[in-house]
Design brief:
5-stranded parallel sheet; alpha/beta; 393 residues; 21 helices; globular
């Protein structure tokens, strides 16, 4: 069956242009075109598509409203915003459950690659062996209600920063874990922070949001995981990912995704350790041995490795595909089929460099990094062993 893709744009010439540029995909994609959000929903009710690609600015129901409805009515549909660069921050922050943002003008290869990658990631997260590994857990890890309240508030343009900080402060456990992460030595902040509002002002909302999510996971897994090693490693990897993404000139939302994925890349390892009905690994030892061979041992023991498990959970929680994809492939970037500088390459390199702080050689896939053109930069960072500092926002 061809993959079904629905394109939504109110301008007739744009729809005609999409039909021309994608003529070569007619054997692969079953394409339909709608001139409004309402028309798109009517078409989807008749036959739900695998992917919907919508313009951001449309009269009546705009792209934000349309994709919010698509998430509610057709949660398995991949949701893509195709719009002007000026709308990027608005789209990423306000569209509920957006999977991919593509800027206009968007060339044919970028559009095809982005949609195809999203669907491959869906297939990975639907692997029966990953679901079976999840079923071996004593329970499903969950995020605190305050996290979801924070996310709902952050999507409202009128929400002020003090309101966001107040949401976190109402949850004492979440606040304690958040400040523990913010003040971890790898962040290398100039002074200790004592309240969420101060942390958000210093780091910015995007990075703060990633720390809130990680803190929520930490609250759910406590007291099962109390050792500092996993969180120190996660913060080191996050800061390295953020700085490396900056140096590579990635877009703002990719920099934020790099920090998020760096912070969350070992989520599956923490869950395995805390929630397996028969714990079989020690967290400190697992972190010391974490490499591609350790993933093979995990697949042999549990049916899935920690990277796959972490990506599966993040996908269930609705995180952006760039973050989920980087977590899934942080040990095996060649499996992603992405062959340009990306969040995947950044997090793979940052995780390996964060592991090598004690002098051990990093577990880098140098062939992949050479192929995507960032090996010289990573090698320079490795040689310098520089300390990365998060500047004030």
């Amino acid at each position: 069956q061809p993959m079904s893709v629905l394109f939504v744009d109110d301008e007739l010439n744009v729809r005609a242009g999409l039909q021309r540029m994608l003529r070569g995909m007619r054997e692969v994609w079953a394409m339909r075109f709608a001139g409004s959000g309402q028309e798109a929903l009517e078409m989807m009710r008749a036959t739900p598509p695998d992917v919907v690609v919508s313009d951001m600015r449309m009269p009546g129901m705009d792209g934000r409203q349309l994709l919010t409805e698509v998430e509610r009515l057709f949660p398995r549909t991949v949701r893509v915003i195709l719009s002007g660069q000026c709308d990027e921050e608005t789209a990423v922050r306000t569209v509920s459950g957006i999977h991919i943002f593509l800027s206009k003008p968007c060339n044919t290869n970028d559009l095809i690659d982005a949609v195809s990658r999203a669907l491959r990631l869906r297939a990975l997260c639907a692997e029966p062996r990953v679901a079976q590994a999840v079923s071996a857990l004593q329970r499903q890890p969950a995020l605190p209600p305050s996290y979801y309240e924070f996310i709902r508030a952050i999507r409202l343009p009128e929400t002020k920063p003090d309101r966001l900080a107040h949401i976190i402060e109402q949850d004492s456990d979440l606040t304690a874990r958040l400040l523990q992460l913010v003040n971890a030595p790898p962040m290398a902040l100039a002074r200790e922070l004592t309240d969420p509002a101060e942390a958000m002002q210093m780091l910015g909302i995007d990075l703060f949001q990633s720390l809130v999510l990680t803190s929520g996971v930490a609250v759910d897994l406590a007291p099962q995981v109390t050792a500092p090693e996993p969180y120190d490693h996660a913060v080191r990897a996050a800061v390295l990912s953020r700085d490396l993404a900056h140096e590579l000139g990635l877009a703002k939302h990719q920099v934020a995704s790099s920090f998020s994925a760096g912070l969350l890349h070992d989520l599956g390892l923490l869950v395995f350790t805390a929630l397996l009905s028969e714990p079989r690994i020690d967290i400190a030892e697992a972190l010391r041995q974490e490499d591609r061979s350790s993933c093979e041992r995990e697949r042999g023991a549990f049916g899935a490795d920690h990277a796959e498990l972490g990506a599966y959970l993040l996908s269930l929680w609705g995180l952006p595909d760039a973050t989920v994809e980087a977590v899934a492939f942080h040990h095996q970037p060649t499996a992603s089929e992405v062959r340009q500088p990306s969040v995947i390459a950044v997090v793979h390199a940052a995780s390996a460099l964060a592991d090598s702080h004690d002098g051990a050689p990093p577990d880098l896939d140098e062939g992949y990094l050479q192929q995507v053109g960032i090996l010289p930069i990573v090698t320079r960072w490795q040689a310098a062993s520089r300390r990365v500092v998060v500047p004030r926002a």
